[in-house]
């Protein structure tokens, strides 16, 4: 099987799984996977598709300027420039961007702190951090309607071959060596966000008096 | 394939997807899709069906009075008149009405304000609004057991070829060019409602002191 | 197809759907469907089965004493006597009992009031109540480990050919004309419970100041 | 069918079901099933696999030291030593370890109390406790990055042929006679955790004044 078909299927599989969780509501979100390094080419979501469906028009191949490398009527996702930054600045092979209710709420609650930090969570190991009581943090940046500006600001947070950025009320972007690694990170961050919000929602309660119900 | 079969399948597909999310609890909700413009005919949900099943009796063809255009033992949904208003006043091709816990709670919380407004959310773009820091609002109207009265009040909020209305403790109705556009809007609104409720549920917490857990 | 096969499949289908929502955690819950009236026979869940699987041993036929009418190694659900009460006192054709987190929490919060009342919810129509601003209420009774005693107390709330009872921290039981009607009621009550809990979870927030986010 | 194939399939089936609930986010969690008693061998999750997929490399056979008993490129899960303790100290046949948002939040909220106690819940019967108003408790222990140390501390809570332990911010481990019994317990505990958190999230509200909405 050609490398193009392999990569397409990897990306389509990860799309199916994330779509099954309703992480692409309202056609939001986009995904990409690197195909060749030199010159850089990668598959990226076509703009405006319903990601619950699996079709031959879900992705298109683009270059290091985010432009289609073959004749096509498809348009690359409006946010393709963010994927260009990932592949330009790191050795990552896959990048995933999704909106979830929880990642949007976290990005709003902690926007002023510009990051959120998690400590003492076993699932941090999925982010490649194995020390006891380790901390991980994810930057939270402002959103911009202008995509080139958004991409430039985003690029400031892109280093390391895996990583993640929250954009305020605009979801999370993660990148990793391949689709498996990118999805693993995505799930770990989402778990941490949901955990944190659930903890906040009960933290005001008089817990001790309720322990034995 | 005839236009009737195409439209039937489009509507059945969107019904399956929404039913899979349990957005039609207790046989609530209804859907329609336009088939012809002149004279107006559209498929609408038959009354009282379990929308988790896909059958030949899920929809029936009705006219601009909401009456069946062919002999059938099926009854159009009790709320067919609302769909009549959508197709009579706009160029929309599809209209979806669902009850979710979150859209009902939002409609109750903000009933007195008669609307809820969202600002600074990336997912607003799915509603066709692309400016930075744009606001979108959705009207919230009172519910009426009398359907003709409900339809008349509903009609006051129906303009534009895509749009959405919340009825207090009676779910959301959206309309758009076709099933894809209507579903995109529906998902964007539901995302905003869920986001807002999640934010409310944690907003009283002492967030800063909990940031590093 | 014989009436037995028809009823078995109806019950198996409703079991599959409720199991898909994880409404039978820990092998909790049970279901039944009437097969004959005179003498009364009905299929009821066999005890201790994983309801996520569909097998030939999911149900067994019992009589008006809740005893198997054919030789079998299967044991009827421990709570078969509650189903006996339903068929003995009403014309219902199906009865469903499930534990959900939300119905258990509601049953605990309102145990002292012995009921919970809902008003002004469109989904009340699924319970057969069509007047504007109608109220519906569901009784909440204490739980008893002794099943004959539990069944006797339960019977006090069983009248009408469709109905519902909450047992404190022991889930909901609904009954209706057939599997479709019983499931419709079950979904309507669950919707009301989830709605109410979501509303409570945000009701303390300073809603107005958050409206425009 | 050989006992190995039977056990493999039992474990793969339970993995599929738990993975479908997203209880293995970020490749977290692990599972095992006993194959032979003397000498002890059991299948355990291979390290670092995506548990949403079902493959020939999901598990490997290990001995009472947690070491592979056949030549393989697979590595046993990093936490295999905890499973070794279960099979060494009890007659259990299956052990399941999952991270959920709710079990992690409970483990954090009650870490200082070193346990959480539940009383008066019908679903407690799934844990094998049938008396009226019975209590069940689950120990909550600190997490340790050092796995042999973690396993030693864990072992202090392992007695009885079925049981469960929460590790702070590191999920739940349950064990039981077979996959069915282990999963039944897992679901019962998760139900209790979710119930408790939902109750906490609404407990501050002015419930009486909201009863009739």
Automatic annotation (TrEMBL), chains A, B, C, D:
Q: Which Pfam families match?
A: Aldolase_II
- Gene3D superfamilies given in the database record: Class II aldolase/adducin N-terminal domain
Show the InterPro entries listed in the entry: Aldolase_II/adducin_N, Aldolase_II/adducin_N_sf, MethylthioRu-1-P_deHdtase_MtnB
What pathway, per the record?
A: Amino-acid biosynthesis; L-methionine biosynthesis via salvage pathway; L-methionine from S-methyl-5-thio-alpha-D-ribose 1-phosphate: step 2/6
What the entry lists under SMART domains is as follows: Aldolase_II
Alphabetized UniProt keyword annotations: Amino-acid biosynthesis, Lyase, Metal-binding, Methionine biosynthesis, Zinc
Q: Where does Zn(2+) bind?
A: 97, 99
Kindly indicate whether the keyword Repeat belongs to this entry: no
Cofactors that this protein relies on = Zn(2+)
- Cofactor note, please? Binds 1 zinc ion per subunit.
Q: What does this protein do?
A: Catalyzes the dehydration of methylthioribulose-1-phosphate (MTRu-1-P) into 2,3-diketo-5-methylthiopentyl-1-phosphate (DK-MTP-1-P).
In its UniProt entry, what is this protein called?
Methylthioribulose-1-phosphate dehydratase
């Amino acid at each position: 099987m050609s490398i193009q078909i392999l990569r397409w299927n990897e990306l389509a599989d990860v799309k199916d799984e994330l779509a099954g969780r309703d992480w692409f509501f309202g056609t939001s979100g986009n995904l990409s996977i690197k195909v060749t390094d030199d010159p850089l080419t990668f598959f990226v979501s076509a703009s405006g598709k319903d990601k619950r469906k699996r079709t031959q028009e879900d992705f298109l191949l683009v270059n290091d300027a985010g432009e289609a490398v073959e004749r096509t009527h498809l348009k690359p996702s409006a946010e393709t420039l963010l994927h260009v930054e990932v592949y330009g600045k790191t050795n990552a092979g896959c990048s995933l961007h999704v909106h979830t209710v929880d990642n949007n709420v976290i990005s709003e609650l902690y926007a002023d702190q510009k990051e959120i930090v998690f400590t003492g969570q076993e699932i941090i190991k999925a982010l490649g951090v194995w020390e006891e009581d380790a901390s991980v943090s994810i930057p939270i940046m402002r959103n911009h309607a202008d995509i080139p500006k958004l991409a430039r600001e985003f690029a400031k947070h892109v280093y390391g071959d895996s990583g993640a950025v929250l954009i305020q009320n605009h979801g999370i972007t993660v990148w990793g060596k391949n689709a498996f690694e990118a999805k693993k990170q995505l799930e770990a961050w989402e778990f941490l966000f949901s955990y944190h919000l659930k903890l906040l929602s009960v933290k005001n309660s008089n817990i001790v008096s309720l322990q034995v119900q």
